[in-house]
Amino acid sequence: MPSYDPNNIFAKILRGELPCHKVYEDDKVLAFLDIMPRAPGHTLVLPKAAARNLLDVEADDLAAVATAAQKIAKASMAVFNAEGVTLQQFNEGAGGQVVFHLHIHVIPRKAGVPMKPPATEKEKPEVLSDQALRLSAVLKA
Ligand code: AMP
Fold this sequence. Notes:
Elements: H1 9-14, E1 22-25, E2 29-33, E3 43-47, H2 59-79, E4 84-88, E5 104-109, H3 125-140
Antiparallel strand pairs: 1-2, 2-3, 3-5, 4-5
């Protein structure tokens, strides 16, 4: 497996070099909205530590990411009136991974509404800002 590339786009977001629509942060985890959501509220949950994917992440960072993903899944049920939540996580190109810093997708779902295909449409920044505000408010409560 290739080594971790510190210039991947999520590493730049973690260092504050690129913006994001943040929904949650703690000492080990950052979560922000996917700019090309497969459904409203689609969130990415990342360890702050450098990890390419599930295959090289330290166990305590993985545990922190999983715990945060659960919190975000529960909050997104309320904020987006969801009836379910899909979690996805891809490893290496062959496994569907495009950005090589570990992330879990948390995707609120409604019955009978299919997810959009990956990376089809960029959401408007003002829509993402509003969603991030509402989700982070519930997560802070
Ligand atoms: P994957 O590596 O296959 O899990 O997919 C990477 C995901 O990152 C896709 O869902 C993209 O829409 C999303 N993405 C790419 N660039 C950004 C960005 N700058 N901010 C938020 N999401 C992004």
